[in-house]
Write a structure and sequence with these properties.
Layout (H helix, E strand, L loop, with lengths): L12 E4 L19 H7 L4 H23 L10 E3 L1 E17 L2 E5 L13 E6 L5 E2 L4 E5 L2 H57 L5 H43 L4 H99 L1 E3 L4 E2 L1 E2 L12 E2 L4 E6 L4 E8 L11 E6 L2 E13 L15 E8 L11 E18 L4 E3 L2 E7 L5 E5 L1 E5 L3 E6 L6 E3 L13 H22 L1
């Protein structure tokens, strides 16, 4: 029975006397002995016999108890343990087998490039089976001559592809620059025509407005000049008339008369010229406002539309030219990429023809159903050539029962002991616990165990894969708790108790409540105190053990029924 179960009741103390004095006749017991055969007989007799049998059972129980109490018990055969406080380590102990933490499988990474039907690359050298090698040592070599020939040929193909890629890259870059230039010119033309149109139609500072105002100012100036010329003409006319009067009176000479006539003619000519210029500017103003404005608007609007369409055409042409250049560039670069990948593949295959040990270990040839692994044998791609277990880093593959699964977690500390080297104790930790139960045990489908890996933290020597090992996983550590040896606890049904040395030479039965346990000690949470001396061999007290409460209940059932039947019959 499990000693980890706990009872809900408090501690009760029952003293089993081991003194040499005989028991008095007045001692009474509330728990009769278990009489299974008598109980079975009680249900097979008639109601009248039940009363007599029940009475006999009661008398026999009392006499048996008195006889038990009267037996002398020797304490010489009892072994005691003094209860104390201490740290209790809770562990899970399982058995498993050793394996390497780094068991590398060396596979062939060389593809057959010859395509000659041999289906494999010949193995020209291989290290001896069972040899111990160091990291970086050459352990196998495949024939690389056919791959080297194809590698040399591929170099020329890659160089030609690289040259074409450079030319198409330059053409693509030039096309980008040309497109930018053409697009900038087209945008500039659109902007200039747009500015010309805006400048012409501006109501405040436009070219048309300024030209009209210039003509109007000139007309105003001409009007002023005409008024001045008209005044000058009238003045010259008056002068001429005055000179003519003086000439007829003899007060002015011929020259003065001619001069006055000339000045009058000049003033009259200037006045007429200004009138003509005024008429010309008025005509220009009418022409500018009526015809030239509309003509200029149509011309500028046409230039604007033409420039916009030219810009759209440049954009489409640039896209087409750039797309063509990009296609050529992508094609050449893709070709170069393929050629370089082939070249790199051949170079990698050549380097993989020599296989070096990735770690220290012992060489183990792979077993093959076909041709054995040996020099000269063709090796296929991804074929297992050999294994290289590292015997200095080992781990234990074990299984944990489902009832303990919730206690075991990765990174828990553990100790490992190998059967072949039982004197050595290794330290380790839990690496992983499987999520699903192990499906390998087909014969016992009811028991579910979960594969667990425990690694040995230290470097080891002389350990081999497959050796049997026992792991002890440190689940929990309870500091400063009361503990008793597991053999000191008596378990019957749901009850747990210990026998404790009593003052005066006897032993007491004390019901206890237990906590976590390992395979040696169990925590006591109630019923035992520090300094108590518990019996380590409680089986020697089995004859003096009082009857279990459940047994007493079963034996009291026939007695109660007998009393009930007797009462009914007498009634």
């Amino acid at each position: 029975m499990s000693i980890a179960e706990r009872t809900a009741t408090g501690p009760s103390y029952q003293t089993l006397t081991v003194k040499s004095e005989p028991a008095s006749a007045s001692d009474s017991f509330s728990e009769p002995s278990l009489l299974t055969n008598e109980r079975a007989g009680l249900f097979r007799v008639k109601n009248i016999m039940l009363v007599g049998i029940a009475a006999a059972v009661i008398v026999g129980s009392v006499m048996g108890r008195r006889a038990l109490r009267s037996r002398r018990v020797s304490t010489e055969n009892l072994v005691f343990h003094t209860v104390s406080r201490g740290d209790l380590d809770i562990t899970v102990v399982e058995q498993g087998s050793l394996e390497s933490q780094k068991n590398l499988r060396i596979l062939c990474e060389v593809d057959d490039v010859r395509r000659d039907g041999t289906q494999g690359t010949p193995l020209i050298w291989l290290v001896e089976n069972g040899a111990h090698v160091k990291e970086g040592d050459l352990i196998a070599e495949l024939n690389s001559a056919p791959i080297q020939e194809m590698f040399d040929s591929q170099i020329q193909e890659a160089e030609q592809a690289r040259e074409r890629s450079m030319l198409t890259q330059a053409a693509y870059n030039n096309q980008i620059t040309q497109n930018q230039t053409d697009h900038a010119k087209a945008k500039l033309r659109v902007k200039l025509t747009e500015l010309k149109l805006q400048m012409f139609v501006d109501e405040n500072n436009g070219t048309h407005k300024l030209e009209v105002e210039a003509i109007k100012r000139k007309i105003d100036d001409l009007n002023n000049d005409i008024l001045a010329a008209q005044a000058s003409l009238e003045l010259k006319l008056n002068d001429k008339k005055g000179i003519e009067t003086l000439f007829h009176l003899g007060y002015a000479g011929k020259s003065e008369l001619d001069r006055s006539k000339l000045e009058f003619l000049q003033a009259e000519s200037e006045y007429a010229a200004k009138i003509n210029r005024l008429r010309t500017n008025l005509s220009r103003l009418t022409k500018k406002e009526t015809y030239e404005k509309e003509m200029e608007l149509l011309s500028l609007d046409g230039d604007m539309q033409t420039a916009s369409r030219a810009l759209e055409q440049v954009v489409r042409d640039n896209e087409a030219k750039l797309s063509q250049a990009k296609t050529s560039l992508d094609s050449s670069q893709e070709l170069l990429k393929r050629e370089e990948e082939v070249l790199e593949r051949y170079e990698g295959l050549i380097s993989k023809c020599k296989i070096y040990a990735p770690q220290d270990g012992m060489v183990t040839y792979a077993s093959s159903r076909e041709e054995p692994i040996r020099p000269g044998a063709p090796i296929r791609l991804r074929q297992h050539i050999l294994s290289l277990p590292d015997l200095t880093t080992m781990q234990v593959k074990t299984s944990v029962h489902e009832s303990l699964l919730d206690q075991v977690r990765p990174e828990m500390e553990a100790s490992i002991r190998v059967d072949a080297f039982s004197d050595e104790l290794y330290t380790g930790s839990v690496k992983q616990v499987a999520v699903l139960p192990d499906q390998g045990n087909w014969f016992d489908t009811e028991t579910k165990v979960y594969e667990t890996t425990v690694v040995i933290d230290e470097k080891v020597e002389n350990l081999k894969p497959g050796m049997t090992a026992v792991v002890e996983i440190q689940v929990e550590s309870l500091p400063n708790v009361l503990t008793v040896p597991v053999q000191a606890v008596v378990s019957r049904g749901s009850e747990r108790w210990c026998y404790v040395a009593a003052h005066g030479g006897g032993v007491d039965r004390r019901e206890t409540e237990l906590g976590p346990t390992n395979d040696r000690y169990v925590q006591v949470t109630k019923g035992i105190q520090e300094g108590d001396r518990v019996v380590l061999n409680p089986n020697s007290l089995a004859d003096q053990e009082p009857v279990h409460k459940e047994q007493t209940k079963e034996k009291n059932e026939p007695k109660a029924k007998s009393k009930e039947l007797a009462a009914k019959k007498s009634g």
